[in-house]
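Aim 2, interim progress: modelling of the nicotinamide-adenine-dinucleotide-bound target.
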Amino acid sequence: MIRISFYDTKPYDRQSFLEENQGYGYDIMFHEERLNEKTACFAKGSQVVCAFVNDNLSQEVLEQLIRLDIKLIAMRCAGFNNVDLAYAKGKIPIVRVPAYSPYAVAEHALGMLMTLNRKLHKAYIRTRDFNFSLDGLTGMDLHGKTVGVIGTGKIGQCFISICKGFGMEVLAYDPYPREDLGYHYVPFDYLLERSHVISLHCPLSKENYHLIDETAIEKMKSGVYLINTSRGALVDSVALLEGLLSKQIKGACLDVYEEEGGMFYEDNSHHIIQDEILSRFLTLPNVLITSHQAFLTQEALEGIASTTLKNIYAYMEENQLENQVQEEEK
Ligand code: NAD
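Predicted structure of the complex, ligand included:
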């Protein structure tokens, strides 16, 4: 029987995989630990490794997995910036889940914006304490405001539809514009200069590491809201903090953070947090942080489990590579 070692698992993703596996009958080993140099050995006796966004698939880890005779790495996520694809090439195939519920992420992004803009996070706490004062809770209408969307793939398109429903003007930037969608594509700098809200919906690559840096922030409209539900390292956190402190940026909605590995998905409430930037962000009332949660809907979990097990079946039973990730895609 084919054994699959799952890393970085939590009760919510175990449930969807156990249900989906009823149609396959694979021997599933769930590991709570994230995949890294120390935990790669847990995959001994498995043929497939299933990894997630904060697992480490560096050359050293891949070497170990190949020595353990792992035949396939099935990412149960869309992003693959944590995989050394150059090393994997020709040695071990990597597959992923290119789409599950783009609505989940787009809706979360808009939810974060609504929360921060209309101060719902403050209002929730106030009314629990019978404080019904409205002081300091003034927001802005989104209707008529300009939103700049960076990346017009599956999630970006959903996000744009929602923003259009709010009556927002949409500017789009993508190095591979989809002219058939009828979006108003503009140069990157123009988008920065004109948008009241900027939302990132592109994958992280070597080319766009710290796409939002000090220079980009300087070009933004004063009082802009920044939303990042894509990957943390698209944003230079130090520059973002400076932008928030100088009030150039009115608010930041962060579902991802460049140093999230080891922190997000875990209960760190009893720990002395060493990350000064994250700690500082969390002191600011105009920063909303969620723990890489944007994907987390029932529909998305079912979609992830379904595609991941299909990908595994296709390769292990039919020698077909479905949804393979290769170096040139990065
Ligand atoms: P997609 O592949 O459908 O679309 C990505 C788009 O980004 C493409 O149109 C591509 O041309 C564009 N792009 C590439 N480089 C760019 C750049 N430098 N600037 C602007 N655009 C660029 O991907 P998707 O399904 O829409 O997902 C987007 C990203 O969302 C993923 O790569 C992943 O990092 C992130 N994501 C986050 C979560 C979460 O839970 N927070 C869940 C799923 C995906």
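The chain has a mean pLDDT of 96. Residues 298-318 form the longest helix (21 residues).
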